[in-house]
Design goal:
single chain, alpha/beta, Rossmann fold, 2 domains, 6-stranded mixed β-sheet, 4-stranded antiparallel β-sheet, 10 helices, 31% helix
Length: 283
């Protein structure tokens, strides 16, 4: 669906190369994540892919067609959820959607009232956006990205500024879109969100991709193959997962009291990122 080869980019009047020979592919129906700290090149990569930045080096294909050969029809195919909401503040939420809806074929548009209801904005649809909180603007931003039923979606920090309940709604809907066959490219420095959503992730730091893999594989490869057991009396111990059922020391330990919890000692995505890149996410 999306194929990128040797993508490099330098902003005009700058000598610094922001993207350095990036190579990756995103399959149809896949949620693909670009993970890295601010300034790593995540948003720049997306801007190239949705044709805001055009003077790039390298090759990009969308559905086996060079990106540079796509015309305005490309913008009917994609939806973009920007990191910073950019609405017309003097217009209401509904007026904002109607304005942007005029750019797309009417047959592709979803029901606005249903979308407002789904994302908790039904009672605010006729309010001016200048009255909205950041979280409300982010939800309206998400609705605008999906309202024309695009095949490819780009989300930049899709849960930023959202409370846990609304962040979970957004994540569930992104998974729903994946199950409908949409191709989704997410950029974030929130490793929990990436772990919950992404089929594969690329770690990007300093404009370079350091690694691409499934989150589950990364956590398994870089974690300890042990379980940590905690008893209600406060005692703790770790044991190898392999042959745990036949481990005499494990059996003797749990016989000393009631088990409070047992946890596998897999690594978190953030721990793997720091180990691979030597870079902290909030740098």
């Amino acid at each position: 669906m999306i194929k990128v080869e040797n993508l490099s980019y330098t902003y005009p009047k700058s000598k610094e190369i922001v993207l350095k020979n990036l190579n990756f592919e995103i399959e149809r129906g896949e949620i693909f994540g670009f993970l890295g700290p601010s300034g790593a090149g995540k948003s720049t990569t997306q801007k190239v892919l949705y044709k805001i930045l055009n003077d790039f080096a390298g090759e990009i294909w969308i559905e086996n067609k060079p990106l540079k050969d796509w015309g305005n029809e490309y913008f009917e195919k994609i939806g973009v959820g920007f990191e910073l909401p950019n609405h017309y503040l003097k217009l209401t939420a509904k007026e904002n959607l109607k304005l942007f809806a005029s750019f797309y074929p009417e047959k592709n548009l979803q029901n606005f009232d249903a979308l407002f209801e789904m994302f908790g904005l039904a009672g605010d649809a006729d309010k001016r956006v200048e009255e909205f909180s950041k979280g409300m603007k982010m939800r309206l931003n998400f609705i605008r990205a999906i309202m024309h039923n695009p095949d490819i979606l780009f989300f930049d920090e899709p849960t930023a500024g959202l409370d846990p309940v609304n962040a979970q709604k957004i994540k569930r809907y992104i998974i729903k879109l994946k199950n409908e066959g949409k191709t989704i490219f997410v950029t974030t420095h929130d490793m929990t969100t990436a772990d919950e959503l992404c089929d594969r992730v690329s770690f990007i730091a300093g404009g370079e991709i350091r690694l691409t893999e499934k989150p589950s594989t990364l956590k398994n490869e870089h974690g300890k193959h042990t379980v940590k057991v905690e008893l209600e009396n406060g005692q703790t111990a770790e044991f190898p997962v392999k042959d745990l059922g036949n481990n005499r020391k494990f059996a003797e330990f749990i016989a000393q009291g009631e088990i409070l919890r047992i946890n596998t000692q897999e690594a978190t995505l953030e721990e793997v990122f720091i180990k691979i890149t030597g870079t902290k996410l909030m740098e």
